[in-house]
């Protein structure tokens, strides 16, 4: 799904205040006071920090935590191409320390991503020209996708090593603020949405207790995705010839039933967590 369309659906009917950059917070038994960068202050009974991988709320709670660079950079783009790998097919090709994936997202649009092992901090003059040079060795439809690309981004791939606690008192974290993961399982936004659903279910009169119950229900599963995404990414970026040969055989020999059961784990959405939070 195109991120802009998801944002539109989520924002529908919600009161959003733009230009309100959180810079710090204080809390006591009565509530939370949030300081904004422009000097204003906001008060609330409780606070959910859903402010992304560089979360100011997380920093206010636990101090500055370093992010981990995974060793590769990602170019991702939107191309005006319909179903390049066949109807409904997502596909990923693995090279030597490089990968190229494509995902149809409807209305004649395909989202593509490509990674390469490279030092952190690189900047492109022309990201599309850079991607053409780096990924020209991949077979079609890669060239067609690059030719039809309308938007392109480059990001170093980083995550947040699992943290032992997501909140304190009347404050909790949600999404990347709590568990930023590498994108190798396509689960960062999905896990953030799962957080939101479990949080909504856990909310009761005592907000601090509700937050702790939400955190207890979610931390284990989110951590599994952080760890698995990191390992899947590391394996996808292998350069050693023998390791890549063994990887190709392991993929060929993995029975479909094992793949299906792994997918069920990914999409077995929420039931165990809702049960552990006391819901049937
Ligand atoms: C290359 C790449 C590919 C990815 N592919 C996928 C994928 O295929 N599938 C998937 O599910 N996920 C994917 N992700 C991950 C996904 O983008 C994130 O996990 C998801 O956006 C997290 O949502 P979030 O709401 O927690 O944080 P964000 O989307 O980062 O939103 C945080 C919000 O907080 C705001 N904010 C930040 N700081 C402050 C502040 N101080 N005060 C107030 N507001 C603030 C920001 O403006 C923003 O609106 C990918 C990520 C990358 C880098």
CATH secondary-structure class of the largest domain: Alpha Beta
Describe the largest sheet: 5 strands, antiparallel
Chain-averaged pLDDT: 94
Structural class, by secondary structure, is alpha+beta
Number of helices: 10
CATH superfamily of the largest domain: FAD/NAD(P)-binding domain
Commentary on this structure:
It is a single chain. The protein is α+β, with helices and mostly antiparallel strands. The chain folds into two domains: 3-66 and 160-235 and 270-276, FAD/NAD(P)-binding domain; 69-158, D-Amino Acid Oxidase, Chain A, domain 2, CATH 3.30.9. The protein is 39% helix and 24% strand. The protein has helices spanning 3-11, 56-62, 127-134, 142-147, 176-179, 188-202, 207-236, 241-253, 256-267, 271-276, and strands at residues 22-28, 31-36, 41-44, 47-49, 68-79, 91-94, 98-104, 110-117, 149-159, 167-168, 171-173. A five-stranded antiparallel sheet has the order 6-7-8-5-9. A three-stranded antiparallel sheet has the order 1-2-3, covered by helices on one side. Strands 4-11-10 form a three-stranded mixed sheet, sandwiched between helices. The model has no long low-confidence stretch (mean pLDDT 94). Residues 21-22, 50-52, 56, 74, 76, 155, 175-177, 183, 186-190, 192 line the site of flavin-adenine dinucleotide. Flavin-adenine dinucleotide binds at residues 21-22, 50-52, 56, 74, 76, 155, 175-177, 183, 186-190, 192.
């Amino acid at each position: 799904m195109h991120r802009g369309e998801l944002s539109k659906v989520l924002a529908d009917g919600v009161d959003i205040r733009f230009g309100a950059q959180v810079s710090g917070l204080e809390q006591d038994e009565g509530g939370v006071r949030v300081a904004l960068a422009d000097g204003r202050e906001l008060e609330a009974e409780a606070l959910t920090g859903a402010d992304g991988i560089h979360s100011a709320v997380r920093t206010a709670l636990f101090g500055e935590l370093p992010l981990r660079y995974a060793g590769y950079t990602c170019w991702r783009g939107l191309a005006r191409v319909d179903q390049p790998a066949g109807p409904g097919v997502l596909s990923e090709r693995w090279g030597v320390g490089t990968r190229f994936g494509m995902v149809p997202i409807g209305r004649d649009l395909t989202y593509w991503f490509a990674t390469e092992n490279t030092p952190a901090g690189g900047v492109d003059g022309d990201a599309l020209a850079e991607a053409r040079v780096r990924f020209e060795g991949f077979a079609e439809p890669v060239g067609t996708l690059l030719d039809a690309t309308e938007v392109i981004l480059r990001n170093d791939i980083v995550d947040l090593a699992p943290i032992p606690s997501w909140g304190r008192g009347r404050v909790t974290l949600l999404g990347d603020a709590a568990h930023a993961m590498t994108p190798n399982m396509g689960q960062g936004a999905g896990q953030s949405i799962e957080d939101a659903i479990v949080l909504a279910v856990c909310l009761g009169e005592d907000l601090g207790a509700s937050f702790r119950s939400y955190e207890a229900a979610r931390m284990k599963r989110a951590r599994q995705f952080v760890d698995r995404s990191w390992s899947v990414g590391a394996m996808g970026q292998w350069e050693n010839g023998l390791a890549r040969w063994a990887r190709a055989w392991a993929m060929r020999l993995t029975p479909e039933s094992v793949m299906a059961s792994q997918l069920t784990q990914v999409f077995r959405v929420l039931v165990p967590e809702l049960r552990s939070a006391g819901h049937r």
